[in-house]
Design a protein that fits this description.
single chain; 2 domains; about 0% strand
Length: about 150
Amino acid sequence: MARGERPVQLSENHRRGVATTLGLLDELLCRVEEWADGRERHGALYHERNNLNSAQRKELLKRVAHLRSSLQDAQRDVGLTGVTQDAASDIWSRCAAFRENLMELEGAQLRRYGDLSPDAQAFMDRLSHHLLRGLDDLLQSISRHAASR
């Protein structure tokens, strides 16, 4: 925005919509930045392979900085406030949303892909329930510590 110009006037509804979209873009930039910084995570079944070379990493960081500068300009010009993602809230919402995926592992749900043997169905039921309990334990950890604040 050129010096002396007034900020863009948007209704509160428009401002919320713009803030949400730009916030999600900034979250994406954080993830790209992590990859460019060499992030590579490894779990039991989930593995990341960071195959970016040093030239790609450098270019990504430069482009992230450019986009982030544009976001800062938009924040100022539109009068947007930033959003802080609370770790406990993020963990809680992701775990709560993922429960349905784990319920889909039950034998009765898996039958839509074809018949299961009784042993396979029993195994999948136990696995689904065990993983759901573990997810509930994660949720309990967040809830318990939130209550103690």
